[in-house]
Amino acid sequence: MVLPLAAYQSCFVDPPGLLVLFTIMTSLNQENQFEKVLIANRGEIACRVITTCQRLGIKTVAVYSAADAESLFVHMADEAIFIGSPPSAHSYLNVDAILDAVKTTGAEAVHPGYGFLSESYIFAKKVTDLGVVFVGPDPEAIRLMGNKVESKIIAAKVGVNCIPGSDKEVRDPAEALEVAEVLGYPVIVKALAGGGGKGMRIARDDAELFEALRLSREEARASFGDDRILLERYLVASRHIEVQVLCDKHGNALHLHERDCSIQRRNQKVVEEAPSSLFTSSANLRSRICDQAIALARAVGYDSTGTVEFLFDDRSQDFYFLEMNTRLQVEHPVTECITGVDIVHQMLRVAKGHRLLYRQEDISTRGWAMECRVCAEDPQKAFGLPSVGQLTSYREPSHIRGVRCDSGVVEGSEISVFYDALICKLVAYGGNRKAVLSIMTKALDSFIIRGVTTNIPLLRDIISETGFVSGEFATDHLARIYPEGFRGAQLHETEVYQLIALASVINVKNVLRNQANVSEVVNAPFRLVVSVVDGTIVVKAQVIQKDDFFEVRLEPLSSKKSLVRVIRVMNNFNLADGIVEQNFNEQETRIFQLRERNHVGDVCLQYRGSIFWLRIRSEKAAALESAFIAAHKRENKPTMPISALRAPLPGLITSISVDAGQVVEAGQELCILEAMKMRNCLNATHCGIVKAVNVRQGQTVAEGEVILELE
């Protein structure tokens, strides 16, 4: 018995209904299924696979490194096998250790997740040679599509549009120069194997090309165990569109429509959505791109879940084949939300040999879905240099209608320097794109994460930016709207005064709570001096408590004109609340997070993802403090040499390019710092002599640690 998808799509509107639909189908059909599946991965995707397996009654085996011994996925699995030390090469890329775990546990199948060995022909072949099922395509399809050069040749043969580029591996800088001369700059240097933005760099001239070749090889080797490289023309103003395909071992193939993954930084996706606004008024374009994806899948005898990626060039108004990912994609939840298909379940079904449950005409879409990748990153450093540490507080906004959270962490989890920075895939689903943007805004504002810096400020800014809201964006969108880099939320003056008003009320509520005789002071006005810590605005605040709200009168100290603002703050929250919702003077509701209060009256609020400290003093205390500072003002003494090269983020020193006493030029490479599988080249900012090298190759450094000194 096969029920229509429409009967189940409603399951994907609310989080409690997610991922249950094909569990129901399986019980109706009483299909044979695996008894035990080993997941050769970690983190969020391991949890995702385990969740579906649990719903199907399939036992699971986790493999883990020393760094992941207490991770959520290890505790979720029925069994867990230790496979090595934290570096990926010693654990999640250690084929022999994983195969030993398969033999030890008697797993019938191996699900590779994404990244690591998920697109390794050698790994898939060794799994199948053991007589174990690889939950993915046939190894030969992985080999054909895993080589980006060979995949382009096959694609061209079946009429798929392809991006101009090298038709073979680029082996050395001289060969790369020849290809770049033919293509013209900019070019993109790409690893032949793998994906996820690893081993991928844009070069705009010869110097950048040489550096990109070296760093891309190193990243590819560390991430996938394969350092082969190719070059392609870089399409500047393009949309990144991918098509989800699903095929079985009986020759059936269909697509689950497209996703738009154009919002990227460092060639890594940040925000994804389905469907794409690009095709809103062009059903013909959607049909063409989906048909080409299916043609390619059939050409290689594809028999699992996969994704065919394209770039839509705004100048030529045509699309070009980028690559095929022979695995589950990070962003698969947005497709699940609009189609009602549990893609992980379908991978397991077809791997077991079952036919697809439906035909192409049975697949329809409903609504809109968007995914924001919430990562442990500082977005004000190159759009997101990694942040590591313990999640001291963690609360997902999964209570919000239309929100889905796919994560692999809990409060107390450690974000390690060894692996990807992803914390949670935050997904919003609604009837249309406008509704989804509203849901996502509330979800990001309500997501509580403490202990590490996150990219929520950037995500929050992106989804409210005019071009993104209107659907007018491309892969270079972030570089265009933040030409000087992301600098945090830029607030309107009204928003700043609302922050000040709320902080003033928080201070007053704290005083009232601690006051011995509240009745004597409750109606008296509180007179405060409040400043945003960056010093941009200093105001006098008068706070008066009314029946169910506080009236806050604000007057700037720096203004020559007596401009008084009166703001109403509802008394609808407790100081222990992490989330505060306010509709000042009955305007639209704004969401704040009360992050911290200290003993001297400072208040830390989070708004639109960004953090704001506000200094609050009584009028008398402010006057005394000002007099004290004026009397004891002194120059700040630098605690570190101006020429000290400090680590911009925690990581591993993989190479040091200079020695003490060596003369260096501005821009010269000093060392390579690896963090979360990304290589970062640290260069000299000025000419000088290396006074001291304070670290050694292979050493782990903390953020801000002095690596070397120049004089």
UniProtKB/TrEMBL annotation:
Protein name (record): propionyl-CoA carboxylase
Annotated InterPro entries: ATP-grasp, BC-like_N, Biotin_BS, Biotin_carboxylase_complex, Biotin_carboxylation_dom, Biotin_COase_C, Biotin_lipoyl, CPAse_ATP-bd
Taxonomic placement: Eukaryota, Metazoa, Spiralia, Lophotrochozoa, Platyhelminthes
GO molecular-function terms, A-Z: ATP binding; metal ion binding; propionyl-CoA carboxylase activity
Cofactor (UniProt): biotin
Residues of the ATP-grasp domain: 152-352
Source organism per UniProt: Echinococcus granulosus (Hydatid tapeworm)
Keywords, in A-Z order: ATP-binding, Biotin, Ligase, Lipid degradation, Lipid metabolism, Magnesium, Manganese, Metal-binding, Mitochondrion, Nucleotide-binding, Transit peptide
GO CC terms: mitochondrial matrix
Catalytic activity: propanoyl-CoA + hydrogencarbonate + ATP = (S)-methylmalonyl-CoA + ADP + phosphate + H(+)
Pfam family, one: CPSase_L_D2
Enzyme Commission designation: 6.4.1.3
Biotin carboxylation domain segment(s): 33-483
PANTHER family, sorted: CARBOXYLASE:PYRUVATE/ACETYL-COA/PROPIONYL-COA CARBOXYLASE, METHYLCROTONOYL-COA CARBOXYLASE SUBUNIT ALPHA, MITOCHONDRIAL-RELATED
Domain Lipoyl-binding: 635-711
Keyword Magnesium: yes
Protein's GO biological process: lipid catabolic process
